[in-house]
Every structure is written in structure tokens, then in C-alpha cells.
Automatic annotation (TrEMBL):
Keywords: Amino-acid biosynthesis, Branched-chain amino acid biosynthesis, Cytoplasm, Leucine biosynthesis, Magnesium, Manganese, Metal-binding, NAD, Oxidoreductase. Its cofactor is Mg(2+); Mn(2+). This is 3-isopropylmalate dehydrogenase. NAD(+) binds at residues 76-89, 282-294. Belongs to the isocitrate and isopropylmalate dehydrogenases family. LeuB type 1 subfamily. The record marks 141, 192 as: Important for catalysis.
Length: 356
């Protein structure tokens, strides 16, 4: 049966990079390698401009009805003066909570062809391939109570609350263990169990859940040490599983080990395996409309979509191999350009992936 993809191009470079990812899907479809139908909708600043709401009800309904959502990026200086509730980024948060996307998969891998893009020494990062599994709908970003109050003394008192239910910890650990079973079978659970009771419980649940995965080698690390180890010896990690906030910070750090923001995809999944797929970068307003953005992170997000939500792992492998081939052939967008390579624009890069 045909799978439904909702395409949300968004703002800035979003429409340019998403167009290339759609080309790749179209090419696979034309060959009969996948069977999908695509529908488009508005989100972010584009939706605000259209109807005054960064996440129109029709868009959320279409997302719920789809098997997977492909998102470009949202936001830009044009919408910065708006109230927080109307900002494009609210559209993204609304999609995450509306779809219950509790598992955020953030791979950090280095294509050998781009080894010189990292700010770290090649021997530290060459062959790097980490998967960070971040809990996305709980923890301190969503905990109640929250707020800022003025005390009797006149001083302000601000608070957010870190909370997790055991079931929330268990389900994110299961996602991490299932992924690790298809990789190196090593999972490092990152917490702050020495200081935070919640994460002491996290560690306990991680251990208990691992009993169902006898082949998984589970280790634990405090978040401060993990951040240090990520830049000292990142290749020691295979899969990392952690809380919403720790994962937010560690995944950005891990991404930057590879040096190229235009290359990394991400997936956010719910309990039904439905997912939203997007590049990790933003809408890059500084280069929008010039046809020079790197579409590879978005194209690789399509590969993750095929693998995790559309049951088309073989097509996903082919996309990843095609990206590797165009890099082998020396094609580079500006963000990953280096000496002796051939600089191309967004569309030329997309066409090359399709051809490969
Ligand atoms: P950004 O990721 O958009 O850009 C950072 C730098 O990387 C810029 O110099 C940009 O030109 C470059 N860059 C990003 N993607 C690129 C690509 N595919 N090819 C070549 N170069 C690329 O982050 P920034 O500038 O902090 O944010 C810009 C806007 O994007 C803001 O409104 C922000 O809120 C929004 N944003 C949206 C996200 C999303 O939709 N998921 C995530 C991060 C930021
Ligand atoms: Mg972040």
C-alpha cells in the first residue's frame, strides 16, 4: 500500500533543500523502489504569513494522517519581532508534541571524504559514527511547575522542574537498544545520577530494561564526563541515550565534531513508528534564495525516513551510497568546499545524487 509523506518545506533555504529531497523520492518512485504519495502543507513563517498561525490545524491534521513528515527548516529574521506564541519555531514544537515524537535520533557521522571539515584532528574523528538518542517530549523542557515569581523580598525566583515517569525512560531506552542491535550493540546511558534523583531512577530503569537485551553492552556516564569524552575520544561511543536537555546539548556537540552542518539528518519518532525527518540545521536566512545551500542533510533525512517509518531500508541504503558517490566524485556545496573539489549549487548536488 502506498505510504503517505507530508512535505513541509518551511522557510529560508527550506523550500530549496526540500525540492532536492523530493527529487530523490521521485526518482526512487519512478523506478518502483518505493510506493509513496506526497502532499504539501504550510508550517512556520510561511504558515504565519498565510493565516497568522505557525502551525495551522490543517497542517497538524495532515501530519497525523501521514506515515512520515519531511520538514525543511523554519524561522528567520522576518518573524523575530513576533510574540513567542506566533514564532515559526512554535510550529516545530507543536508538531513534536502533537505527534508525540518522544524519540529524537541524531546521528553524527563523518564521511571519510570530508575528514578535513572537522576542527578536530583526523585521527580523533575519522570513522566517527555515533547515534545520539534524545528523549524529546519529557524532562525539564516540559516539567511542571515552571515559572518566575517575585518573592516577598522583591527578588525574582525562577524554576523549571525535571520529571520523568519510569515508562517514559523505558520506552526511550528500548528505542536506543533496538537501534544498537542493528549497530555495534553498545549503549552508553548518560545521566547525572550522582546529583539528580530523577536520573538515578533513569539509570535504574536503563539497567532493568536492558535485561531484555542480553546482547547489549550497557554503560553509564555522567553528563559532564560525557561532554568531555565526546571531544576527547568520540569514537568510544556507539549509541548514546539520554534526557531531553542533556541530549539537546550533547547532540549539537557531537554534530559539530563532524564540522559540517549541511550534512547531518535527524529523525523524531513516536510510539507508532511515525516520524518527522529534518536536517539538523536551521533555515540559513543568510544564504536563502541563492541556490547554494547544501541539500545533503535533507536528502539523508529522507534515507532515515525510508528506514525508520516507511520500511524501505534498501532504498535508504541506496541514497546513502549515492551521497557517498557524489562526494567521491568531488562535488561540494560551499559549506563543505575544499581545495581541488568542484563547487556546485543546491540543484546540481540534488541532480548528482539522483544520477548516482
Ligand atoms: P542555521 O543552521 O540556519 O545557520 C547557521 C549557519 O550555517 C549559517 O551560516 C548558514 O548559512 C549555515 N548553514 C545552515 N544550513 C546550511 C546548509 N544546508 N548549507 C549550507 N550552509 C548552511 O542556524 P541559525 O543561523 O542560528 O538560525 C537561522 C534560523 O533558523 C533562525 O530563525 C532559527 O530559529 C532557525 N532554526 C530552525 C531550526 C529548525 O527548523 N529545525 C533549527 C535551528 C535554527
Ligand atoms: Mg538544540
Amino acid at each position: 500500500m502506498s505510504k503517505k509523506i507530508l512535505v513541509l518545506a518551511g522557510d529560508g533555504i527550506g523550500p530549496e533543500i526540500v525540492a532536492e529531497a523530493v527529487k530523490v523520492l521521485d526518482a526512487l518512485q519512478a523506478e518502483g523502489a518505493i510506493d509513496v504519495t506526497m502532499e504539501e502543507a504550510l508550517v512556520g513563517g510561511a504558515a504565519y504569513d498565510d493565516c497568522g498561525d505557525p502551525l495551522p490545524a490543517a497542517t497538524l491534521e495532515a501530519a497525523k494522517a501521514a506515515d512520515a513528515v519531511l520538514l525543511g527548516a523554519v524561522g528567520g529574521p522576518k518573524w523575530e519581532p513576533l510574540h513567542f506564541s506566533k514564532r515559526p519555531e512554535r510550529g516545530l514544537l507543536g508538531l513534536r508534541s502533537g505527534l508525540g515524537l518522544f524519540a529524537n535520533l541524531r546521528p553524527a557521522f563523518l564521511y571519510p571524504q570530508l575528514a578535513d571539515a572537522s576542527t578536530l584532528k583526523p585521527e580523533i574523528v575519522s570513522g566517527l559514527d555515533i547515534m545520539i538518542v534524545r528523549e524529546l517530549t519529557g524532562g525539564i523542557y516540559f516539567g511542571e511547575p515552571r515559572g518566575v515569581e517575585t518573592l516577598e523580598s522583591g527578588e525574582r525566583y525562577g524554576y523549571n522542574t525535571l520529571c520523568y515517569k519510569e515508562s517514559e525512560v523505558e520506552r526511550i531506552c528500548r528505542v536506543a537498544y533496538d537501534i544498537a542491535m542493528k549497530r555495534g550493540k553498545r549503549v552508553c546511558s548518560v545521566d547525572k545520577a550522582n546529583v539528580l534523583e530523577v536520573t538515578e531512577m533513569w539509570r535504574d530503569v536503563a539497567v532493568k530494561t536492558a535485561a531484555d537485551y542480553p546482547e547489549i553492552e550497557l554503560s553509564h556516564m555522567y553528563v559532564d564526563n560525557a561532554s568531555m569524552q565526546l571531544v576527547r575520544a568520540p569514537k568510544q561511543f556507539d549509541v548514546v541515550v539520554t534526557t531531553n536537555m542533556f541530549g539537546d546539548i550533547l547532540s549539537d556537540c557531537a554534530a559539530m565534531l563532524t564540522g559540517s552542518i549541511g550534512m547531518l539528518p535527524s529523525a523524531s519518532l513516536n510510539a507508532e513508528g511515525q516520524g518527522m525527518y529534518e536536517p539538523i540545521h536551521g533555515s540559513a536566512p543568510d544564504i536563502a534564495g541563492r541556490g547554494i545551500a547544501n541539500p545533503l542533510a535533507t536528502i539523508l533525512s529522507v534515507a532515515m525516513m525510508l528506514r525508520y517509518s516507511l520500511d524501505a531500508g534498501e532504498a535508504a541504503d541506496r541514497i546513502e551510497a549515492a551521497v557517498s558517490k557524489v562526494l567521491d566524485d568531488g562535488l561540494r556545496t560551499g559549506d563543505i568546499m575544499s581545495e581541488g573539489m568542484r563547487q556546485v549549487g543546491t540543484a546540481e548536488m540534488g541532480d548528482a545524487v539522483v544520477a548516482a
